[in-house]
Design a protein that fits this description.
This protein has 251 residues and is an alpha+beta fold. It has a single domain, classed as Maf protein. It has 6 helices and 9 strands; from the N terminus they run βββαβαββαββαβαα. Strands 1, 2, 3, 4, 5, 6, 7, 8 and 9 form a 9-stranded mixed β-sheet that branches. β3, α1 and β4 form a beta-alpha-beta unit.
């Protein structure tokens, strides 16, 4: 995915957008919209393993083809259906990374929800942000090398947009979570070898910390699972607001 700097801002389905905030702000903001009303939530994080078990009344659909997100969902302990969104991400050009991932996450969730009644759809989108440039998925080996060389020996942001959309009530939430990842200095030979492994493809920023690129990481500040594309703590919090909660340790 090419850089999206300077692109015009966009939105989804005519719904109100979330209030602006600078990337890296200490508090996360989210928006709950239902039939024209808007309520802004500021909350402190709670660990998802402490949530009380509650019956699941709706089928959960993950609107993503990402194997990493699917594996995280399985570990989370919910039964779910995978239904990748057919939303064309290339049609959205937004220069602000937080607005971009929130717009895409909501569009994916809403698009799938329109086809599946009685469901709660989870949509997500992840980008890497560094020195004013947005990195999506590399389109070629040369593109992957270019990305990794820019991230080499420096700190970047991994920003994931997360949206939950109720197909019946049309109530939804949309959030963005930011995690900072610092890379060690990497040699050109290491970058070349990593790209040849094929691991960078299909990954925002051209890497995944779960794989060989874990050797490049010096430190991570924030939600580790967010770097994998699905902030589990926030997901658990949001699901509980829709009446779906789970005690991970009770499985």
């Amino acid at each position: 995915m090419a850089s999206r700097e300077g692109a015009a801002e966009g939105g989804c389905g005519g719904n109100s957008a979330a209030p602006e905030r600078s990337v890296g702000a200490k508090r996360r903001r989210s928006v709950l919209l239902k039939k024209g009303s808007r309520e802004v939530y500021n909350y402190s994080t709670k660990i998802f393993v402490k949530l009380l078990s509650m019956p699941i009344s709706k089928k959960i659909i993950l609107a993503s083809s990402s194997l990493q997100r699917q594996e995280l969902f399985k570990k989370f302990g919910f039964e779910f259906i995978v239904q990748p969104s057919d939303f064309d991400e290339r049609a959205v050009e937004i220069g602000d990374p937080e607005k971009l991932v929130k717009t895409l996450a909501l569009a994916k969730a809403k698009g799938v929800a329109e086809r599946f009644s009685g469901s709660l759809v989870v949509g997500a989108d992840t980008v890497v942000f560094h020195n004013g440039e947005i990195f999506g998925k590399p389109q070629s080996a040369a593109h992957a090398k270019e990305m990794l060389k820019k991230l080499n020996g420096d700190t970047h942001s991994v920003i994931t947009g997360l949206s939950l959309y109720d197909a019946d009530t049309h109530q939804f939430v949309v959030d963005a979570v930011e995690t900072f990842v610092s890379f060690k200095p990497i040699s050109d030979a290491e970058i070349d070898a990593y790209v040849k492994s094929q691991e960078p493809f299909g990954k925002a920023g051209g890497y995944t910390v779960q794989g060989l690129a874990g050797l490049f990481v010096d430190r991570i500040q924030g939600d580790y699972f967010n770097v994998l594309g699905l902030p589990l703590d926030l997901l658990a919090h949001r699901l509980s607001e829709f009446g779906i909660a789970h005690n991970y340790l009770a499985r």
